[in-house]
Amino acid sequence: MTELPNDRAILQVLASIQDPQQGRSLVELNMIRDVVVKPSGVVSFTLVLANANSPQRDDLIDRCKIAIKSLDGVTDVWAKVIADNPAPAAPAPPKPSGDRAAIPGVKHIIAVSSGKGGVGKTTVSVNLAVSLAEMGAKVGILDADIYGPNVPLMMGMDDFRFTSEHISTDANGLDVVQPAFNYGVKIVSRAFTHGHQPLPWRGPMLHGIIRQFLTQVNWGELDYLIVDMPPGTGDAQMSLIQSVPLAGAVIVTTPQNVSLLDSRKGLQMFENMGVAILGIVENMSYFIPPDMPDKQYDIFGSGGGTKTASELGVVLLGCIPLEIGLREGGDRGVPITLSHPESASAKALRQVAATIAAKVADTV
User: Fold this and answer.
1) Would you say 183 and 156 are in contact if contact means Cβ atoms under 8 Å apart?
2) How many CB atoms lie within 10 A of CB 240?
3) Per-residue confidence (pLDDT) for residue 40, from 0 to 100
4) Could you report the per-residue pLDDT of 104-139, keeping only the tens digit for each?
5) Pairing of strands 139-143, 185-189
6) DSSP secondary structure, 204-236, as one string
7) Residue 261 in contact with residue 123, Cβ under 8 Å?
8) All residues at 6 or more sequence positions from 327 whose CB lies less than 8 Å from its CB, including other chains
9) What is the distance between the alpha carbons of residues 31 and 26, in angstroms, rounded to a whole number?
10) CA 139, CA 134: separation in Å to the nearest integer?
11) How does DSSP classify residue 105?
């Protein structure tokens, strides 16, 4: 087995790379920081620049990556860029988790995210919420997938709409919404106000409605608030991370290579923003035909979630098989953990929920 390089070896190969403006080594100038070599051979480091958007930025990153990859045992290189003296007009970095405004009464906020769409993120979210409620916890689910809100359909609330009866005014004169409720879970979605009509909302509007869902909803006492995120690493993710303290993020993927590639980006985004990664859920791990329950077929490949979790140094929370009942439950609005509790998918999803609950409890 190839021996991995240590921090000193990384700094040695980077010592020859100079800052073009000062003509001195990046290492000598303390512009290379936080070098980490993971057991998988992935090397991460922070590049400190006077201006994070410097025109030399990409060239310096490429040169550093080439130098590090020349070392035996290195499988990949991740670079994070920060500004030593950011320009006054630059947006401030997100506040530490302790400084973000907690939601009164809500103990743990968990983001369920994915790098791309179509991997079953919402299916995992609703079954996770229902499973935690079945375990006796007080649970809410926030449908933050503003452009594709499917939580109401999967929770049997697709026809529900907020009316004036669900809205009250608090002491500050702000409207406060009473969430919908089904299967032991409190639910909020923009589909409850706008249905499924397309909404051409830009970043600021998206940020505004997510903050309203967080702060202008009567969530009451909750053990867990599950946030079903839109796919990708865009405005919704940043708004959530910068608004409230998160107990952690769950990344949903399939064994397919393109999904795994995108899931890495989403995972790294949360890590770079200081959010703990609770683990990866590999959905659609294999197909179980209804007429041959003892058979399984790796339609989307196999072992991808295990490999990715190992390489990135995170936990594989579980592998969820693809069954007809899983799809039917989503379409009918009855999560499979309720409609077919003894199915392989339901058992796997309940185990994921139990593992997440244990991990969150350990971090308190």
Assistant:
1) yes
2) 25
3) 82
4) 999 999 999 987 778 889 999 999 999 999 999 999
5) parallel
6) HHHHHHHHHHHHSB---SEEEEEEEPPSSSSHH
7) no
8) none
9) 5
10) 10
11) T
**322 backbone dihedrals φ, ψ, rounded to 5°:** -95, 120
Both tokens assigned to 277: 């990664």
In 100-206, where do the E strands start and end?
A: 106-113, 139-143, 167-169, 175-177, 180-182, 185-189
pLDDT for the residue numbered 260: 67
Q: Does the pLDDT of residue 41 top 90, yes or no?
A: no
- pLDDT (0 to 100) of residue 240: 85
Query: 127: burial class by Cβ within 10 Å (0-12, 13-18, 19+)?
Result: buried
Buried b (16+ CB within 10 A) or exposed e, 282-304: bbbbbebeeeeeeebeeebbbeb
CA 8 – CA 253 distance, rounded (Å): 35
What does pTM read for this prediction?
0.68
The C-alpha atoms of residue 159 and residue 41 are separated, in whole angstroms, by 50
Determine which helix (DSSP H) or strand (DSSP E) holds 246, and give its type and residue range: none
Residue 91: pLDDT band by 50, 70, 90 thresholds? very low
